[in-house]
Structure formats: C-alpha cells, structure tokens
Amino acid sequence: MTNLLGINDFDKNQLVDLLRLAKEFKNQPTIPNHALNGKIVAMLFFEPSTRTRLSFESAVLRLGGQVIGFADAATSSTAKGESLEDTIKIVSGYADMIVMRHPETGAAQRAAAVSIVPIINAGDGSREHPTQTLLDIFTIADERSGRSSELNPDRLENLRVAFAGDLKFGRTVHSLSLGLRHFNPTYYFVSPPNLKLPDEFKKSFDEHRINYQEMTDFTQLPADINVLYMTRIQKERFDDIKEYEALKNMYQLNQVTSQLFNSDCLFMHPLPRVTEIDPQVDADPRAVYFKQARNGLFVRMAILTSIKY
Ligand code: NCD
To answer: How far is it, in rounded angstroms, from Cα 280 to Cα 81?
Structure first.
C-alpha cells in the first residue's frame, strides 16, 4: 500500500491482515517497536480533530517516529492563500508520509497527485474517512471475538448493521458501508429524508448484491440488529443553519430507546457526540464507542507499518 485514500484501496484479505496486525499491537501495547525509527510523519489538519490527529500522533511516537504539522490551517500558509497542491509539494519534501484531513471532498486524491510521499486520508469533506472505518471494523470484530487474544474475522460475516443520523454528509458512514461490503451485511439506513445516503453508495450496494433498507423512524429498527452506528448531524456542512437546527435532535439513543435492541447489539459512534447519545447510555455494556476510539491507536499503528515508503 502506498497511499490510503479510500476504503476501496483494500481488498478483503488486506483488510483482514490489517485487523490482525492491529490486534497484535493491542495485545502488546507497551512493547517498544521501532518500525518508524528515523521517519518523520506530517499531520496536516485543515479541519478540527481530536481522536484522529492525536491517535495518529501517538501511533507514530509509539513506533519510534517523529511528527511535524499543524492542527489548524489558520496557522499555516493556507491562510495566506496557498493552494493545497503547493502546500503538499512543500511538505512532501520535509516528511516521509503525510496524514491529512481537509474540508473538501476529493482533497486526498488531489494531494496524492502531487505528493512524492504516501498520503493517508484522515477525512476529506463529506466523502470518506477510511482509517476510521478500519478502526470501526476492528472494533466490531474484536468485540465479537469474546475474550480470545486472536481476532476472528468470521464474526464479521452476515451482520445486520444500522446507521442512524446524518447519512448524507457523514463520511464515516460512507466509508464503513463500503468497507463492510466484503462480509455480506444487511444494512438499515435511518435518516431524515433530506439527509439520506447519497445514491452512489446505494448503486455500489446493488452491484455487490447487498440488501439495504432506508427508513426515517429510529424506533422501527429491528431489535436483532448486531450494530447500531450512531452519527452526529454534521453542522459544519450545512449552508442553512436553520436546517441544521431543525434536524439536530432527531434521533437519540437514551435509556428508553436503548431498550429497543437486543443484549448483544453494539452501540457505536465515531465521536464526537453532541445530543445523539445520552451520557447515561455510557454505562450500558453494549456501548463500545470509547473502546472504539481507543482502538484507533492500535489500528493506526497497523496502518503506519503497512504503508510502503
Ligand atoms: C468523525 C469525522 O471527523 O468524520 N470524527 C472522527 O474522526 N472520529 C465524525 C464526526 O466528526 O462526526
């Protein structure tokens, strides 16, 4: 793998190999590893981030590498009007790899076209977020593998997965629904009518003969879903803030609605959450979103060691 731009860059075997490697890192988190010794990784975050940036930075440091970059484009020459292409040409002369988040769809591809070092897409607008998907799939496999120290990828097969919230702008949903296609899923997409999953993703499910249903009412979901993937309404992508205000509290997982689902359903969220999951749900054994965020470290260590310089 030279770049990681979208989740379709992985075939099923590569994906499963990466999950297994992440599990090795998780089993031995403190064992020194020097895979990135002498390497410099640039973190270019043109959009806000906590988990993605800090888990990537931590992963680089744990692998013996070093980090440069910025967490806010306002402190970079972007604020002076520099193009993305020029910034990438410059930084790719200073670093061995670039992890980039950008508000524009397709920015990762544009960066890869001019970079002389590998580009990892840490979220490009509302399009994709492939490293989040790898940690999401890892979390599902890990939680469903019980106490075993080995990951059982068969536990990813034939799952019923529900996605709720902003399916139009939510890049984590886009990448995860593509990434799970290797495992014969059945999907339920719950959103307000104006935040439905874009057609291009549904076309891809049709091509891969994946069953899916769309609905607007959260309470109509079947009780026996295996995963409930909640998402934040993506305020920053709305042109009209009034439209956001009208939709922001549409779905809420709380102590009442959580009763709708069976005891083995995983409650997931890429975080940050706003109002869509009541903190009272955090103590529920089905709530795995904080474990999911922690898994980001091990999965990103696996990604960083799988990239070819
Ligand atoms: C997500 C993102 O940036 O797309 N956050 C993350 O990386 N964990 C989800 C979101 O911001 O809602």
So the answer is: 45
